[in-house]
Amino acid sequence: MRKMVLSLLVDNTSGVLSRVAGLFSRRGYNIDSLSVGVTEDPKYSRMTVAVSGDDRILSQIEKQLLKLEDVKSISQLKDGESVCRELLLVKIKANVEQRQQIISLADCFRAKVVDVSMESVMVEITGNVSKISAFIALLDGFEIDEMVRTGLTGLIRGNYVD
To answer: Is 16 exposed, middle or buried (0-12, 13-18, 19+ CB in 10 A)?
Structure first.
C-alpha cells in the first residue's frame, strides 16, 4: 500500500467538500487526512487530501476527482518536490516537576507552549508528519489529556512544475 498526498484547487462554494468526500465514501476509499482553506483568490479553496491504496486505487481516485465539476486542478505533492506541514495541539497533564520537562521537550522541537495551568500544559507544534509523530512518541511517559491534529497541508516547491 502506498500513500499519496493530493492538492486540489476547487471552487469556493457550498457543498464542494461534501461532493469530494462523497466521491470517496461512494467508492469505499478512505481519506487519511483532509484540510481545506481559502486561497489567495477567494473564488477558490485548496484541499489537501492524503490517501492510501495500491497503484490502481490511487490512479482511480485522481481520475474520479478530475471528473468533479468543482475541481479545477490536481497536483500530487511528492516528497522532495513539495512542502507539507501539520499542526498539533496537545494538552498534557503536568504537576510542577513535569511542567519543566514538557517545556524543555517543547523547546527541543521548536514547539510553543501556548497555555499553562496548575494541572496541565498545552503545546503547539508544526512540522512534517515524522516530526509530529516523534514528539508524540516522546510524550509516552506523560498523560495526554487532549490532542488534535489538523491533517496535512502543503504546496509544490517553487522549482517544480506539476
So the answer is: buried
Interatomic CA distance for residues 38 and 135, integer angstroms: 29
d(Cα 7, Cα 49) in Å, to the nearest integer? 7
Place of cell 498526498: 5
Enumerate residue ranges in the chain where pLDDT < 70.
160-162
Q: What cell does 19 get? A: 461532493
pTM over 0.90: no
C-alpha cell at 127: 512540522
| Closest-CA residue to 65 (of 83, 78, 48) | 48
Architecture of domain 2-76: 2-Layer Sandwich (3.30)
82-155 CATH: 3.30.70.1150
At 162 the pLDDT is 57
Q: Where are the domains of the chain?
A: 2-76, 82-155
DSSP labels for 91-154? EEE--HHHHHHHHHHHHHTT-EEEEE-SSEEEEEEEE-HHHHHHHHHHTTTSEEEEEEE---EE
